[in-house]
Here is the input.
Amino acid sequence: MKKDTIKLVCQNRKAYFDYFIDDVIEAGIVLTGPEVKSIRLGKVNINDGFARIQKGEVYLHNAHISPYPFTPLESFDPTRTRKLLLHRREIKRLIGKTEEKGYTLIPLKLYFRDQYVKVELGLAKGKKKYDKRETIRRRDEEREMQRQRKNRG
Here is the structure.
């Protein structure tokens, strides 16, 4: 049995600071050939990206994929809307969740699973300023505890 090989290309680390991530879903993404080549080079940024459900389909907005340098396409839009590939039941579940107050879909990771490009979407709820302060305080406490353990051992 063949094991899946996963190669992480891009990660939205700020999403874990700005949002509470309740659920994680893997989705395929519809791309053109030069976009895939550009992703292989790591020329992608998903930090400003978000996903939206329109007419029963999920689309990724504001994900920036730089043009592949060896392609003669003049009309290449790096932030175009890209369709995400999900099962119908997953989309129906997401519609129910995103209609709740405050929930949104945020791309967390972009990676290759075997030869296919996949996006990891997080069902997220925005944090308030005091929640962010709490996250910083907790992270600093954990760091301090690690230091103390290291110095003791």
Summary: The first strand starts at residue 6 and ends at 11. The beta strands are 6-11, 19-29, 44-45, 50-54, 57-61, 64-65, 82-85, 103-113, 116-126. The first helix runs from residue 15 to 18.
